[in-house]
Amino acid sequence: MHLSYAVLLTLIILLVKSVTAQVDLDNEISGITRQTDTREKVASSVRFLRGGDTKDGAGNEVDNEEKGLVGDVAIKLGLKLSLKMNREPLHVLQHLQDSGNLMSEKILFAWLKYVLNYRQKMGYFMADDAYIVGTLEKFVSAEKLPALLKSMEKNSKLRTLGKNLQEILASKA
């Protein structure tokens, strides 16, 4: 047991040493010019981390960003906890929206998987296909809903549900 701690401590020290060695090396290299001919002036350009331009176009792309791994894990854990608490799918989706999550395909697919698990636990009659379509209509625009249901065919776990929901949506129209 003590040997593993000693090995771990040695590895950490070696990693810290290698990082500090690289920092010292970078300071020496930064003074060297990287251009072959320093007499010419090089035009500087503005580079953006997000798509957009200097006219505040970058701010419009924020809605398309992914929240990252932590957000995905938090959503999955929240859905598992909601399933243990037997929360209705409508309330779960409302909570996801109230938490500031955009109703993206990724979030909605996670919710639809929650609904399938909820059905297994509580029974089909608690969240039938008509209930799912009605709930989705409250949160997804009428223009985007058919595309969402069509994209469910690409997901093997949601394929049959997507086809059933498409039929119900078509019968409503």
Structure, briefly:
With 173 residues, this protein is mostly helical. The protein has helices spanning 2-29, 69-84, 89-98, 105-122, 129-139, 145-151, 159-172. The protein has a domain at 67-172.
| N-end to C-end Cα span | 68 Å
Low-pLDDT runs of 5+ residues are 58-65
Structural class: mainly alpha
Silhouette: flat
Mean pLDDT: 78
Rg, nearest Å: 26 Å
Q: Into which percent range does the helicity of residues fall?
A: 55-70%
**Count of individual helical segments:** 7
Strand segment count: 0
Order of helix and strand elements from N to C terminus: HHHHHHH
- The percent range for strand residues is under 5%
* Main pleated-sheet profile: none
Function: Effector that suppresses plant defense responses during pathogen infection.
Protein name: RxLR effector protein
Subcellular location: Secreted
Main location: secreted
Structure write-up:
- By secondary structure, this protein is mainly alpha-helical.
- It has a domain at 67-172.
- The chain contains seven helices and no strands.
- α2 (69-84) packs parallel to α4.
- Effector that suppresses plant defense responses during pathogen infection.
Which features does this protein show?
single chain, mainly alpha, flat, secreted, signal, RXLR, RxLR effector protein
Task: Summarize the topology.
Blueprint: H1 2-29, H2 69-84, H3 89-98, H4 105-122, H5 129-139, H6 145-151, H7 159-172
